[in-house]
Structures are given as C-alpha cells and as structure tokens.
Amino acid sequence: MPSPIVLVTTPEFLRAEATFRSAENLRCVEAPSAEADLAAAIAGTGARYVVVGSTRYQKELYAALPPGGVIARFGVGWDSLDLGQATAAGLICTNTPDVLQTSVAELTMSLVLDAARHLTALDHGMRHDDWAPRTGTELRGKTLAIIGCGHIGRAVARIASAGFGMRVVGCRRAGSVSALGSMPEFAVVTDDIEVAVGRADFVSLHIPGTAANIQFINRARLAVFEEHAWLINTSRGSVVDEAALYDALAAGQLAGAALDVFAREPYVPVSPDRDLRTLSCVILTPHVGSNTVDANRRMAERALGNILFAEAREIYRMDILNRDVIQK
C-alpha cells in the first residue's frame, strides 16, 4: 500500500524540511498556505491529512478534507482554526504541545535582556556612527510578572528566577490558581492582574489568542503599569490592543514594549498615525518565538505523530483540540 499523502504548507515544510522528507510511512508534500489553493491541492491529491501553520482558515479547508481527516497545527496555538466547522465536518484538529516552550521562553528572556540593556538601540547607534553608551539595569532582584502560567509561562519563570535571580509573580485566571508548592518558580501566584502588574518591572504575556483574551491588555490595564515597566509579548498579537499600547507608550505611561507577535501578520499598523515601528522604545521581531531548529523538528515530529495515530486508529493518543468530534 502506498504511504498516505500529507500536505504540509510551505512555511512549515521549509522550517522542518529534513523531518518531513524523511518521515516514515507518510509521504509529505509541500503545499500552498492560502486556503483556496490548499483546498485545491487536497482535491488534486486526495489527501486526508494536512499540516498547517498560523494562517487563518475559515471555510474551504473544512469542506475539502473528507470526514476522519486531520488538520495538524504546526505549533501550540489554534486561534487560526475554526474548531466548530472542523467538528461539524468530522475533522480532527491537533496541535503540538510541550515541544516549543524552551524556544519561546528563551526568546522571551532575550527580549527582557534587550529591554534592560538597550541592545537594539545601541546596535542601531553603532551602525550609524553614533557612539552613545546608555545606562542599563540588572535583572537580579527585579520583578517579572507573567500573565499565563502554562508550560511556556512556567519555563520563562524558571529561567528568570533560577538563572537571573528575578522575583517572578504569576497571574492565572480566576479559579485556576495552584498551590505555590506545585509552582516553585513563582514567588507569588494570583488571579488579580492589577496585583501582578502593579509593581512589575517587566510584564510578559503567555495567554492563548482565544475570543475571551482578545485585547486583554487594553487601556485600563495599561494604566496600571509602572512608568518604568516593559511589556513583552511572545504569545498572540490579538491579546494586545495595539492602538492603546501605542498611545500609552507615546504618553510615557510605560517604558517600552518588546513584541514578537501582532494583531495582523506581517505587521500592519492599526492606523497610519499609530505605527509601533516609529517608536524608539519598541523592539520588534517577526513572530520567531518557536522558530528554532530544535523546536521546528519537534513540532514536525509531533504533528506527524498525531497523523500516524489517526492512521492506526489510536485516537486516544492524539493531541486533539476538538474532542467533541470523537462523539460524531
């Protein structure tokens, strides 16, 4: 029997090409990311399985795959998928948990370090013949508030507390606060964001881009930040009101922001007069939190593993996002 075809969207295929090309018992084929083109590729190949990235899929994909097919998300976030449509079509959606937290956590701390020592600004100055030393700050003893205490948030907390001697405050949604004994990375865990952010030197976001979290960081919450504080976002761009953030930064309500994710990607300002790229106190990177050789390989392996479990009818071993589909 020929190996089942797995269509892998181009950006994800290129990030882990060796893993996809060497996959056993599966034939991975590079495919376009655009939804209509991906649907056409499914029709042309008869594929039952696709591996996709953060491109938003809203309609054609769910009609193109046959019932029992798999949409395997290359990554942990699933806000780009419509789980309701997938379930109605009898499709299983999966993600790749527990394989990218180290990469995202390391980038998060890199952005914290950049903010503390002005590395991006100093590099820019040197490249323009501007020898202008700036005074930075040590991280030891500073307070880092982590909003979202899942696997990535806790990985950041471990690096910050054990590696840099920072005081780490965790903030979780009401009703989910664990005992500190089970979360030793944190000095304090609270469900009150004002308590978490109130005296923080750095605030790092690690919450999913769900409907409940859209523009979670808004004008009211930005008003609670200390004037010397930095906002770090390596989670999802949708959780920050970018217009409110621009206004707060321009008014000096907080010291700066380091952003790896944006409401629209590639980045497009919310309005011409609120372009974050024009502010010297903003550090920008193009959504590279999980983009390391190591994490890419692990995400590819996990995505393909989910598909192999589907082939073997070992559904219970899959990282299923829409568990209601099992009942269909």
Q: How many strands? A: 12
Runs in which pLDDT lies below 50 for 5 or more consecutive residues are none
Overall number of structural domains: 2
Class of the largest domain in CATH? Alpha Beta
Oligomer: single chain
Residue-averaged pLDDT, rounded? 96
Rg for CA atoms = 21 Å
- DSSP summary: helix tally: 12
* Helical coverage, percent range: 25-40%
Q: Which structural class do you get from the secondary structure elements?
A: alpha/beta
Question: Span from first to last CA?
Answer: 28 Å
CATH fold assignment of the largest domain? Rossmann fold
Neighbour order of strands in the largest sheet = 8-7-6-9-10-11-12
Order of helices and strands: EHHEHEHEHEHHEHEEHEHEHEEH
Q: Which term fits the overall shape?
A: globular
The name of the CATH architecture of the largest domain is 3-Layer(aba) Sandwich
- Could you give me the name of the CATH homologous superfamily of the largest domain? NAD(P)-binding Rossmann-like Domain
In short:
The chain is built from twelve helices and twelve strands. With 328 residues, the chain is an alpha/beta fold.
